[in-house]
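can u do me a favor
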């Protein structure tokens, strides 16, 4: 299984802490892929920081999902990209990655 671990801020230190925690709980056969928001705020400690980071976070997440899809199922990529718009599209894309990983 492959799990995309998302850090909505741009702090690599926070990403390392998140990954350390995730590795403790993940099975040995689970591949953890970390994504730190490249354009996020350093800390998300208020609604404003959350708002400032959300757009780049979603874009970075969609790009990472696209990379995974390109490597696993290129024949379905264009079909899925047409569906990807906002939260519902992101969910469909993530569901497609989970479906592919479980095969």
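np, heres the sequence
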């Amino acid at each position: 299984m492959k799990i995309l671990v998302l850090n909505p801020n741009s702090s690599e230190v926070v990403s390392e802490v998140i990954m350390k925690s995730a590795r403790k709980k993940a099975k040995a056969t689970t591949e953890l892929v970390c994504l730190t928001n490249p354009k996020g705020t350093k800390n998300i400690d208020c609604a404003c920081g959350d708002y400032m980071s959300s757009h780049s976070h979603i874009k970075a997440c969609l790009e990472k999902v696209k990379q995974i899809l390109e490597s696993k199922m290129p024949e379905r990529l264009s079909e899925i990209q047409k569906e990807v718009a906002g939260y519902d599209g992101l969910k469909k894309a993530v569901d497609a990655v989970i479906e592919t990983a479980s095969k």
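The longest strand covers residues 2-7. hope that helps!!
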